[in-house]
Amino acid sequence: MFTDQLGRISFNSKDLLEEIYKGNIDLIDKAGVSTDSDYIKYLEFLEQSGINDWPIPLPQDQSEIDITSFDSLNQHSWLMPLEYKEYSVASYLLGLCTTAEETARVELELKLFEEHNMMDLLRFLKYMVDKFRENTILWGVGRGSSVASYCLYLLGVHKINSLKYDLDIKEFLR
After folding, report:
1. What are the phi and psi torsion angles at 55 (to 5°)?
2. 28: which of 18, 36, 67, 169 lies 20 to 30 Å off by Cα?
3. What does the alpha-carbon distance between residue 132 and residue 162 come to, in Å, rounded to a whole number?
């Protein structure tokens, strides 16, 4: 259990599982967590997968938290294995480039992703696409402003080559 920057009490999956096993019902009720067998199996899966640092915040009135603060506190809480949290997505993406134009675009986008503090998002999307492929899950071709990102194209998030169609990255990050 820990307290975040806004004073909210959070659990990681291992802590929560321990409290369930201890029968600490008051704490579990306060956390608003289901104690049904499927949820417990899910927490056990997280623990077995080594995903024990995922924060599970206690629900509370968040009406006083502005969107920017909420996003900045939670954007690094992606539920993914440690190998992806430490993954060098920049090296991976640059390794896929075959031309100077592709390399320049990836470098520009990576700089923008870094400036917007979105590198964890790229790591999570790499994990998500890998899991989709591993489990033969189909996902869309791409829509909206995300297709303006060449990095997302290289990750496999969408199938629209933004360089081929001369799409400006600013459309994605506006």
Report:
1. -75, 140
2. 67
3. 22
Q: What are the residues facing 10 on neighbouring strands?
A: 2, 57
| Of 23, 51, 74, the domain-final residue | 74
How many other CB atoms are found less than 10 A from the CB of residue 70? 12
- Cα–Cα distance measured from residue 123 to residue 91, given in angstroms and rounded to the nearest whole number: 12
C-beta of residue 39 within 8 angstroms of C-beta of residue 33: yes
Same domain, 38 and 57: yes
Q: Encode pLDDT of 117-174 as tens digits.
A: 889 889 999 999 999 999 899 998 888 888 999 999 999 999 999 999 999 988 887 7
> Residue 44 is part of which domain span?
2-74
The answer to whether residues 144 and 106 belong to one domain is yes
Same domain, 20 and 54: yes
Whether 58 and 93 share a structural domain: no
The reply to whether 147 and 110 lie within a common domain is yes
- Is the pTM for the entire model greater than 0.70? no
CA distances from 151 to 32, 69, 171 (A): 38, 26, 14
Cα–Cα distance for residue pair 145/149, rounded to 1 Å: 8
